[in-house]
Amino acid sequence: MANGPLEIKAISGHAGTVPGRDTSRDYALAKLIDVTTCIGCKACEVACLEWNGYPFRETEFNDTYQTMPDLAWNYYNLITFNEHVNEDGTLQWLMRKHGCMHCADPGCLRACPSDGAIVQYANGIVDFQQDNCIGCQYCVTGCPFNIPRFNPETKKVHKCTLCSDRVGAGLEPACVKACPTGCLHFGSKEDMKDLAEKRSLQVRAHTSHKNAGVYDPQGVGGTHVMYVLHDIDQPEKYGGLPKDPHVPLSVRIWKGPLKWLGNLAMIGGVLGVAIHYVRFGPKGDKHGGTP
Amino acid sequence: MIERYTFHERICHWLTGLTYCYCLATGLAFYTPYLFWLALALGGGPTSRFWHPLTGLVFFGGAIWMHGIWRADMTITGADREWLNKSGDYATNHDDAVPPQGRFNAGQKIFYWAMFYGALLLVLSGLVLWFPEYVPVGFRWVRGIAILLHESAALITIGAFIIHVYMGVFMVPGSVRAIVNGSVTADWARAHHRLWFDRITGK
User: How far does B75 lie from chain A, in Å, by closest CA?
Assistant: First the structure.
């Protein structure tokens, strides 16, 4: 694990190259959430608040064990509780740790116009730098998981940092440290993938969950937060986890073809009128023609 | 000297013109990283983000005011179709071949309508970008569409704006004085807007 400043891989809204890219051999990290062993104790929620220094917020009591109805700008990490009735009439009580997935192809970073407001480290962590955030919320539109939350008072957007400050100091994220069942794991992406495959094999072999599998969606290039799910075919039943997430098409058109078309049109327009002036010059007053 | 634009017309023009330029500069900063320095030069990213939508509203208000002043003058007529057929001659300064024009020629009218509908699209899509938190999660696609609309409409107005500034400042001498001080010479009026000149001088 890196001990020292984290090497940067990509910077939002940044003209030119990324300084210092590929100068060291930081390896990709990942957090693995084994949903099958989560007991919904919410120790990770508490640890997250404590480490990030946020106060506990008031909640709503709406007949659920879920702490908060939704994520918030100062609530990065939420265990969602869903009661799912299977086709055979049996009930599943599904708890899932919900938060930023740290995509390898982050839609938030693609959409962000502000230089350095979002950075992706070489180890895979996608981190918001509130100092550089201008509060436009394009990242919210770019995110396929609906994670970033806006603080209307400071006009800054926040989300899970994967404890980049702890990871930079050689520590594991606060949520992982607090987890009492060993449902949360942290390590190299390779090791975590290996562990996830082994665990889902174990679940398939020893329980009735024959569809257990690893959630590491390739539509966003894979994620640095992965799940082991009892039923990999129906991630939606875990509180709306998308089955095949992608950076929204509108964001890809906006940052792709439309950008090039616009650049060409604007540069072409300025060049065009300049050439026109040199070729034809101004109109005269007398007959409207060349003076 | 002949009065080309009244005091109210000139104020309205510069209100929309200057607010458009501010939105253009800050908008280009958000459009591409290579122009983000524009936002820094104008007081920083958050400041630009704060004033861009508010200035946009003033621009839109100006556009509505302008619509009240110029809507009638900007109606496309049969004479405009004749001008459009001869627009190649107009662009290459063979103005003797171009039919005489009223107060505004078809090019100016097309510019006006591009800006008016552009402003309408910009303000509608801009409201979504301004208050995205009020768009329900199930309607998130609306935000994506709004971004595409906002950018497309902006690009159309930028194209029109480039030609407008070029025509006014470089190609038709006397236009700047007309829109700043309001007056043009009789020769200018006769050369560029013969029908309008004949009407106001009673010939």
Answer: 23
Chain A residues in contact with B151 by the CB 8 A cut-off are 254, 258, 262
C-alpha dihedral (B162, B166, B168, B173), degrees to nearest 10: 180
List CB contacts of B112: < 8 A, sequence separation 6 or more. B70, B74, B104
* Each residue's pLDDT expressed in tens, for chain B with a length of 203 residues: 899 999 999 999 999 999 999 999 999 999 999 999 999 999 999 999 999 999 999 999 999 999 999 999 999 988 899 999 999 999 999 988 899 999 999 999 999 999 999 999 999 999 999 998 888 888 888 999 999 999 999 999 999 999 999 999 999 999 999 999 999 999 999 999 999 999 999 87
Chain B residue numbers with beta carbons less than 8 Å from the beta carbon of A253 are 148
pTM of the model: 0.91
CATH architecture of the domain with range A8-246: 2-Layer Sandwich (3.30)
Question: How many Cβ atoms from other residues are within 10 Å of residue B156's Cβ?
Answer: 17
Instruction: Write out pLDDT tens, residues A126-171.
Output: 999 999 999 999 999 999 999 999 999 999 999 999 999 999 899 9
* Amino acid type, B94: H
CA A9, CA A89: separation in Å to the nearest integer?
48
Question: Nearest by CB to B147, which of A114, A254, A282?
Answer: A254
> Between β-strands A118-121 and A8-11, what pairing exists: parallel, antiparallel or unpaired?
antiparallel
What is the domain partition of chain A in residue ranges?
8-246, 256-291
Residues 42-81 of A with CB under 8 A from B: none
Residue B188: what residue type? W
* Chain A from 79 to 118: CB within 8 A of any B CB: 113-115, 117
The B residues from 122 to 141 touching A (CB cutoff 8 Å) are 129, 132-133, 137, 140-141
List chain B domain ranges: 2-201
Minimal Cβ distance to B148: which of A253, A277, A286: A253
What sections of A207-256 are H helices per DSSP?
Answer: 249-255
The CATH class, in words, for B2-201 is: mainly alpha
Contact A134 B33 (CB under 8 A): no
